[in-house]
Specification:
Radius of gyration: 29 Å
Structural class: alpha/beta
Strand content: 15-25%
Largest sheet: 6 strands, mixed
Distance between the termini: 40 Å
Shape: flat
């Protein structure tokens, strides 16, 4: 029997209302010990009453009682809606602890929902993504994971590998059944080729979904006094970075963010990159180079009227990175090359730069509207499975025996199950008998 757990479900701040959540087999019994009415329900219900500490009234509340398994966690659960004073909600939690509940650990309610089959692992992870979403588009991606749409993307791989693995095991363990399909080289190649193509598409779409979900990190680099700080200020529409004609004004990373086409753009204004004898400025320059190497996209800013060896050095630093080359101070230029990108950060004329960033994002309507396997964990698993499939295909073409291939196929199948958290309950016999009537 799992202990009844309790925790505050709303932020621990003063507000109009607060929600205290409890879940576990003794949930109703524990709540009845400090609620003004007995809680003995056979279906979800709402009860109005008082929280009591012995004979003392603590607060007037509304209590939502959920009868398991029809609850978020799959267990008997209660949500107490109290007034939002920290004194009140902390006191209610203390009373619950005193009457037999245990303080929940981080994520424990969602963990119980997963363990009780109310959510798979992708859905469980999406709850955190939903809470942390910084744009409507990121929220939409998280909701598609929460409703199970993302999890369904792995069903074709899961079914194909499960069928193949079951066939192999039956061929090896039950050779006397002549009417069972034989697994041969062509069958394995067909399954691998089909799923290699499908997984590559999932990874491609997942990388795009990750951009919508997490945003991208953009470093603004260039020599001193080319207008990097002015560009950051113009993009975020805020005077955050100090702008000065004095070289070396920016000595540390200045951060800002804005949303462009539903994607969070995390901006980093860096110290001007140049040769310097100033120890403090040199630290800032080294940070700039590190941020340049870590960024997803570089905005390299140049002053067209003063292009020299230091600019050439910056071009060499960014040549293997996704980058946009920007000529600032367009308001001071008479002759402009139609193939170059010009902005005037001082006058906030930066629409062309925003369009260039959108082009670098390379997102389609489908990326915003379709589910995608986009977390670091999920993409990492898919990439591992892809490598294993390509290895099985090579080994198969090199005539490695089927019983040896089956070990790799089983491992990749377990990896696919781990995407949704089903790997803890894998039983090859159950997979076989779910597909064949072996005992006929």
């Amino acid at each position: 029997m799992l202990e009844t757990i309790v925790a505050l479900a709303t932020p621990p701040i003063r507000s109009a209302l607060a929600i205290i959540r409890l879940s576990g087999e003794d949930c109703f019994k524990i709540c009845s010990s400090f609620f003004s009415k007995k809680i003995n329900v056979d279906k979800s219900t709402i009860i109005h009453g008082y929280i009591l500490d012995n004979d003392e009234k603590i607060d007037e509340v509304v209590l939502l009682a959920y009868k398991g398994p029809k609850s978020f966690t799959g267990e008997d659960s209660v949500e107490i809606i109290s007034h939002g004073s920290p004194i009140i909600f902390n006191q209610i939690i203390e009373i619950a602890l005193k009457n037999g509940a245990r303080l929940a650990s981080g994520g424990e309610f969602t963990s119980r929902a997963y363990m009780n089959g109310k959510l798979d692992l992708i859905q469980a992870e999406s709850i955190n993504d939903l809470i942390n979403a910084e744009s409507k588009e990121a929220k939409k991606i998280a909701l598609m994971s929460l409703d199970g749409s993302t999890s369904k993307l792995i069903d074709p791989i899961k079914n194909d590998l499960g069928d193949l693995l079951s066939l192999i095991e039956v061929n090896i363990d039950y050779p006397e059944y002549e009417d069972i399909e034989e697994v041969n080289k062509e069958k394995i190649n067909e399954t691998m080729n089909k799923n290699i193509k499908y997984i590559k598409e999932l990874i491609k779409n997942g990388d795009k979904g990750k951009i919508i979900r997490d945003g991208i990190n953009v470093a603004i680099v260039g020599k001193p006094n080319v207008g990097k700080s002015s560009i950051l200020n113009a993009l975020i529409d805020e005077d955050k970075a100090i702008v000065s004609n004095i070289k070396g004004t920016t000595r540390d990373i200045v951060e800002g963010k804005f949303i462009l086409n539903g994607v969070v753009i995390n901006l980093f204004d860096t110290a001007g990159i140049r040769e310097s004898d100033d120890f403090i400025e040199e630290i800032g320059i080294n940070k700039s180079i590190k941020k340049l190497n870590d960024a997803d996209l570089i905005i390299a800013v140049f002053d067209n009227s003063n292009f020299d060896e230091e600019d050439e050095e910056i071009l060499s630093l960014i040549k293997n990175k996704h980058h946009i080359i920007v000529k600032n101070k367009a308001d001071l230029m008479n002759n402009k090359d139609k193939n170059e990108l010009y902005v005037s950060a001082l006058n906030k004329e930066i629409d062309s730069l925003k369009k260039a960033i959108i082009n670098e994002l390379n997102l389609s309507k489908e990326n915003y509207s379709n589910p995608s396997i986009s977390s670091v964990r999920e993409l990492g698993i898919l990439k591992n499975v892809l490598e294993m499939m390509e290895k099985v295909k090579r080994d198969n073409e090199n005539d490695v025996s089927i019983d040896l291939l089956s070990a790799d196929i089983k491992n990749m199948y377990l990896l696919i199950l781990s995407l949704i958290g089903e790997d803890h309950d894998f039983d090859i016999a159950k997979e076989i008998f779910s597909r064949f009537c072996v005992g006929k």
